[in-house]
Design goal:
The structure is a single chain. With 161 residues, this protein is mainly beta. The protein has two domains: 86 residues, Chitinase A, domain 3; 48 residues, Thrombin, subunit H (Beta Barrel), CATH 2.40.10.330. It has two helices and nine strands; from the N terminus they run E-E-E-H-E-E-E-E-E-E-H. The strands form two sheets. Strands 1, 2, 3, 4 and 9 form a five-stranded antiparallel sheet that branches. It has a four-stranded antiparallel sheet with strand order 5-8-7-6, with no helix packed on it. A hairpin with a 5-residue loop joins strand 1 and strand 2. The longest helix has 7 residues. It is elongated, with a radius of gyration of 19 Å. The relative contact order is 0.28. The protein binds zinc ion (ZN).
Length: 161
């Protein structure tokens, strides 16, 4: 263990894909705050942010391996339409929350036939190279409570009720 305090870093970011389409941005709301070293954000982004100072902006490209992973064909399955209880019409593009052995997971329907649906449980950004435009807004030391919980409290972080 080092004695360097663990930091809370607040960033503004805009995320685009290889086609230049904006996938997500913090610019319309509060900055995103994360706890360093707690895997709150993808590793490929964190390792670049750690080199940056408050007020600095940078473009960071992250490979799938250091982002949301490569696309795993084993997570693509065909299931009977009858498995979708309570859904009138199953269509490609629909998203569902499924309970799996790894906890709740988002699945996307990618194709539908007369009796079967093809579902994909990969992260929607799996297999994609991610292009971040990031700016460091604020850096502060983490509190004891944040270290114990493994996430940030307050603006841009978790709110416990
Ligand atoms: Zn907490």
């Amino acid at each position: 263990m080092s004695n360097t305090p663990v930091r809370v870093v607040s960033i503004h970011y805009t995320l685009t894909n290889d086609q230049g389409e904006v996938i997500d941005s913090s610019r319309e709301s509060a900055p995103l705050a994360y706890l360093e070293g707690a895997q709150n954000i993808i590793p490929g982004l964190e390792k670049e942010l750690i080199k940056m100072a408050v007020g600095e902006s940078r473009k960071v490209s992250v490979s799938p391996e250091e982002g949301y992973g490569v696309h795993d064909a084993n997570l693509v399955q065909q299931v009977p339409l009858a498995a979708f209880q309570g859904v009138d019409k199953v269509e490609a593009g629909m998203q569902f929350q499924a309970n799996t052995e790894h906890g709740p997971q988002m699945i996307v329907v990618t194709a539908v036939s007369d009796t079967l649906a093809t579902i994909d449980a990969n992260h929607p950004l799996a297999g994609q190279t991610l292009h971040f435009d990031v700016e460091i807004m604020e850096v502060r030391d983490a509190s004891e409570e944040e270290l114990a919980h493994g996430h940030v409290h307050g603006p841009g972080g978790h709110h416990h009720h």
